[in-house]
Specification:
The structure holds 2 protein chains of 2 kinds.
Chain A (H helix, E strand, L loop, with lengths): L6 E11 L2 E10 L4 E5 L6 H8 L7 E6 L2 E2 L4 H7 E4 L11 H11 L5 H11 L12 H13 L5 E5 L7 H16 L3 E6 L2 H5 L4 E6 L2 E7 H6 L3 E7 L6 H5 L4 E5 L4 E6 L4 H7 L4 E7 L3 H14 L1
Parallel strand pairs in A: 3-8, 3-9, 6-7, 7-8
Antiparallel strand pairs in A: 1-2, 1-4, 4-5, 9-10, 11-13, 11-14, 12-13
Helix pairs in contact in A: 3-5, 4-5
Chain B lengths: L2 H40 L6 H6 L8 H36 L1 H5 L6 H33 L6 H29 L2 H21 L14 H6 L3 H4 L3 H23 L6
The chains are: A alpha/beta, B mainly alpha.
């Protein structure tokens, strides 16, 4: 394997003015990983991806994909990268087959078996003109064209938008296979649940700036957990629990309390051990909550 | 130029182009068929020089004057420029605005080669319309009882084709620089109207006669191809202008952000 990262950006900036764009983005995606690129709509995810494909050019900074400069080596880069834009259109009068043949020709031909396999997996409609297809069926053609030339790196902007859960399942299976072959997937979404299942690492982008890059596992560790506790004869005052280390929020009063906390549960458990605990139910750490916290900061920033 | 882009673009524009060519043929044939009964009775119109200039002489008494005024002066250039501008604007800026080019250019094909392929397809559209004009002249003049030589009819069609190339290339250049279909179509169309008026009126104003040299209409038919045959100088000016505009289109398209 060559030494360079699958994707590396250095101070990558696209300033659209008025605070819009992407600013000083430093990001590194390793080869063979599935990397989730998250952020609310308008955070700059698509802008970043379009810069990687040389569709738009950075105001400053630079980026490489597979060690290739996004502008100088764009042709070779595009040969080795598959891209699914978040918003795209296909020639409406062409059939699915004609559209795929066209893209195959642009790539100097593709392996027929790979193409047929993809078409079969996603049950892509090939015989009807694109303008007759539903959004989901168009999206399937978009997915097939991104994968059909067996690219080493896939840049996918909101790939499962508009496709049904069954197809999403085959799509995620495909991503796992691709990553297992050492190929890289860079995947954007505005909802966490879409990437949580497949991505090992994620980055969150907000207002064009990177707010966090971490593994899903580490993010879960700092995520808030929640206990529903029901007390019997003796119960602590809600205020008493609020001062316990790690506790962030206590809801309810009297015998039933909902306690949210971060980190290890030990201090909380010791604090309630003095009382009559009837039941204790734990809720799994919710990554969505971490995620929303980063999003919500947007208003405060 | 990218063969795949050229073939796909042409395929999608072919029907429209063939219809425009066939329409041109049919109209010219009808115009020719009307000449024996109508042309003689109109004769040479007694109109101001400016109007006569715009109408290609307004001499309806001869088949040459009739075709020059009915087809050569307005209808022919209008249809071929409109076909070229529509094809050029739709297949470049139009596809860009709708999000088609954003996906095409995610594949390994250089922007310059895409633009040249679009230019090639537009050129074929223009040739189809010019061929319709040529066949229409052959049929129409025959229906009128003859009177224009094959060489002169061919000359008009060739001059017209080069005129069409220029307007297609102008629309490509505007699309290449701006990426906006409306700018490409309206810009090239407005220039066409302006060029038509300048070519007609400039020669009537002392000191402004030279303005006609800025008009593609002058280089297309200023020397009257239906009478005098090919005007090589005119063809050179139109083709060089076309080439320069295509270069502008390629460079403009290569040096900016894609719009969608």
């Amino acid at each position: 394997m060559p030494p360079h990262a699958a994707i590396r950006t250095e101070g990558l900036t696209k300033d659209f003015g008025g605070g819009h764009g992407v600013f000083a983005l430093d990001l590194e995606v390793e080869r063979g990983e599935i990397f989730g690129f998250l952020g609310p709509n308008g955070a700059g995810k698509s802008t970043t991806m379009r810069m990687l494909l040389d569709l738009i050019r950075p105001t400053s900074g630079s980026a490489t994909v597979l060690g290739l400069d996004t502008h100088r080596d764009s042709l070779e880069l595009r040969h080795r990268v598959g891209f699914l834009p978040g918003d795209f259109e296909l020639y409406p009068k062409l059939t699915g087959r004609e559209v795929l043949d066209f893209f195959a020709a642009l790539n100097g031909g593709v392996d027929r078996r790979v193409l047929d396999d993809l078409v079969e997996r996603f049950d892509a409609q090939l015989d009807r003109p694109v303008h007759d297809l539903s959004t989901g069926n168009r999206q399937k053609l978009g997915i097939v064209q991104a994968f059909m030339h067996e690219p080493e790196c896939l840049i996918l902007d909101e790939p499962i938008a508009g496709i049904d859960p069954l197809v999403q399942h085959s799509f995620h299976a495909l991503l796992e296979e691709v990553a297992a072959e050492g190929r890289t997937v860079f995947l954007s979404s505005h909802t966490l649940s879409e990437v949580e299942r497949v991505a090992k690492r994620i980055a969150i982008l907000r207002r064009g700036r990177l707010v966090v890059v971490d593994t899903v596992a580490d993010l879960l560790q700092v995520a808030r957990q929640r206990y529903d506790i029901e007390f019997g004869a003796t119960a602590p005052a809600a205020d008493a629990l609020r001062s316990v280390e790690g506790v962030e929020e206590v809801d309810g009063d009297g015998p039933r309390l909902v306690v949210s906390f971060t980190g290890a549960p030990d201090p909380l458990i010791k604090a309630i051990a003095a009382y009559d605990v009837r039941s204790l139910r734990s809720h799994d750490a919710d990554l969505e909550e971490v995620f929303l916290r980063y999003y919500r900061d947007e208003g405060a920033a | 130029m990218s063969g795949a882009v050229f073939a796909t673009t042409l395929r999608l524009r072919l029907m429209t182009a063939v219809l425009a060519g066939v329409g041109m043929l049919a109209v010219i044939l009808m115009v020719g068929a009307l000449f024996p009964s109508v042309g003689d009775s109109i004769g040479k119109l007694n109109v101001p020089d400016g109007v006569a200039n715009l109408l290609g002489g307004a001499d309806y008494g001869t088949i040459t004057g009739w075709m020059r005024s009915e087809i050569g002066a307005i209808y022919g250039p209008l249809v071929i420029a409109a076909s070229a501008i529509a094809a050029a604007a739709a297949t470049t800026a139009g596809e860009e605005e709708s999000g088609i080019l954003g996906l095409v250019l995610a594949h390994p094909v250089a922007r310059g080669r895409v633009m040249l392929a679009k230019g090639g397809a537009v050129a074929v559209v223009v040739v189809i319309v010019a061929a319709g004009t040529w066949l229409g002249l052959l049929a129409g003049v025959a229906a009128a009882g003859g009177g224009i030589s094959l060489a002169d009819m061919t000359a008009l069609a060739v001059q017209l084709a080069c005129f069409g190339f220029t307007f297609g290339a102008l629309a490509l250049a505007l699309a290449g620089i701006t990426g906006r279909k409306a700018v490409a179509a309206a810009g090239a169309g407005s220039f066409g109207v302006l060029a038509f008026l300048v070519n007609g009126f400039a020669p009537l104003v002392d000191g402004l006669d030279w303005l006609k040299y800025l008009s593609p209409f002058y280089w297309y038919a200023g020397h009257d191809p239906l009478t005098n045959g090919l005007f090589v100088g005119g063809l050179v000016v139109l083709l060089v202008t076309t080439a320069v505009l295509v270069v502008v289109a390629v460079v403009g398209f290569g040096h900016r952000d894609l719009r969608a």
